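Hi support team,

I've been running sequence recovery on a batch of backbones for a student project. Most finish fine, but this one hangs at about 90% for roughly twenty minutes before it completes. I'm not sure whether the input is malformed or the queue is just slow. I've pasted the structure tokens below so you can try to reproduce it. Let me know if you need the job ID as well.

Thanks,
M.K.
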């Protein structure tokens, strides 16, 4: 591989607190050799030069929550199509969820998914295993064995551990062997049969709603348990101001845990559902505008640590059903960064903060050496034109399923190039 030099770039790397104009050199081994304003262009026949014309260079994005259809749901998404969508969105590292068929809850399944990912994926894959066997919420999986096999964290995806005694055991065990617990916060009894946020919109549409209390209750319970069992605990996605207030209170009291939010809950609210737009049926559901604004403020104040795509591909047939029967979820890995950049363009969040919650923060939570442009690290790099306008068209997105929640949305900011281990793997 030739040495590559990226010149005339604006470089932002929150892991090193860098925001400056300069260049970046990738060595022949795909590692970052030098970075910043002091780096000069080297005229060497063995170097490949990329003139970025002032465009932005950031670390490859780390997405902490995405679904891949292998095994069992290849008709929705597979490693190849997920990789293509991810790279087009500047995402170079993905935490994949275990709700496959069969569920990733044992060593043999981890071996299978690791081999399949290595053979077919074009991104860094970090598989997650389930907290409980078959996602049933009854008995724990073998955390220790699964960790030895390379599992990065444990989650029951969109199912919550309802049994408090079981959750206490999970936290206790997780504390002993230092594994990451990722919880979906939603009380089952309160959210049963619901499909939308409880309130005026749900009443008007005649749909069963779920109160934000369902989310708040689980967070409060788990954080109370965290006082007894100090483990690495992460709330997958919060969606409401009430949940954020609980997080603020506990953080100020010194409790250590992390929280994420879906890009959907930062860019949409319940009013966007309109007349039964099933492509906006999500979990957690879209909430009020005041909740959306509170979540943005929560990122700004460092109470929310990461933004995830919550990429959930579904075939069109399962989405084009009556709202209550329609499948839950939306694709979003390709549009994660452009949607996040809306908050920069409308001055809701500083650009550095947006990059931080998409790169270095998830890497720290996962304890992986990604989301950085430090010298010697793998050259996973995203090049972005901050101002490029474009319109989201489902048929042009690279995911196998086309269930985007933001069809026809006008965005500003486009990924121009993505490098993985120093190789140019996507160019627009």
């Amino acid at each position: 591989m030739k040495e590559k030099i990226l010149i005339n770039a604006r470089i932002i790397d929150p892991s090193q607190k860098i925001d400056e104009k300069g260049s970046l050199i990738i060595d022949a081994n795909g590692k970052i050799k030098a970075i910043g304003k002091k780096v000069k262009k080297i005229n060497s026949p063995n170097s490949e030069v990329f003139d970025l014309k002032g465009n932005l260079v950031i670390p490859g994005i780390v997405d902490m929550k995405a679904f891949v259809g292998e095994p069992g749901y290849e008709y929705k998404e597979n490693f190849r199509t997920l990789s293509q969508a991810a790279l087009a969105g500047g995402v170079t590292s993905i935490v994949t969820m275990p709700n496959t068929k069969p569920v990733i809850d044992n060593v043999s399944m981890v071996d299978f998914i690791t081999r399949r990912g290595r053979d077919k994926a074009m991104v860094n894959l970090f598989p997650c295993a389930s907290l409980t066997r078959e996602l049933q919420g009854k008995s724990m999986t073998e955390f220790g064995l699964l960790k030895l096999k390379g599992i990065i964290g444990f989650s029951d995806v969109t199912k919550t551990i309802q049994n408090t005694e079981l959750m206490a055991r999970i936290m206790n065990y997780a504390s002993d062997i230092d594994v990451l617990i990722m919880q979906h916060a939603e009380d089952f009894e309160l959210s049963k049969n619901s499909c939308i946020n409880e309130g005026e919109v749900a009443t008007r549409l005649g749909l069963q709603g779920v109160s934000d209390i369902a989310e708040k209750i689980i967070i409060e319970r788990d954080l109370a348990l965290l006082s007894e069992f100090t483990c690495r605990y992460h709330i997958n996605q919060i969606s409401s101001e009430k949940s954020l207030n609980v997080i603020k209170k506990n953080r100020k009291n010194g409790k250590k845990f992390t929280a994420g939010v879906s890009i959907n809950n930062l860019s949409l609210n319940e009013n966007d559902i309109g007349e039964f737009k099933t492509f906006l049926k999500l979990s957690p559901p879209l909430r009020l505008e005041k909740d959306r604004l509170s979540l943005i403020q929560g990122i700004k104040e460092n109470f929310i640590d990461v933004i995830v795509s919550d990429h959930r591909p579904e075939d069109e047939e399962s989405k084009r059903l009556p709202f209550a029967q329609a499948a839950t979820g939306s694709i979003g890995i390709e549009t994660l960064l452009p949607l996040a950049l809306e908050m920069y363009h409308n001055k809701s969040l500083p650009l550095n903060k947006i990059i931080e919650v998409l790169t270095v923060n998830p890497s720290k939570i996962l304890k992986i050496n990604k989301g950085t442009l430090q010298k010697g690290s793998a050259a996973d790099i995203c090049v972005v034109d901050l101002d490029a306008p474009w319109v989201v068209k489902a048929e042009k997105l690279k995911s196998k399923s086309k269930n985007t929640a933001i069809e026809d949305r006008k965005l500003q900011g486009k990924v121009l190039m993505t490098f993985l281990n120093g190789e140019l793997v996507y160019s627009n």
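--
Follow-up from support: It reproduced on our side and the slowdown came from queue contention, not your input. Residues 61-366 form a domain with the TIM Barrel fold (CATH 3.20.20.140). No action needed from you.
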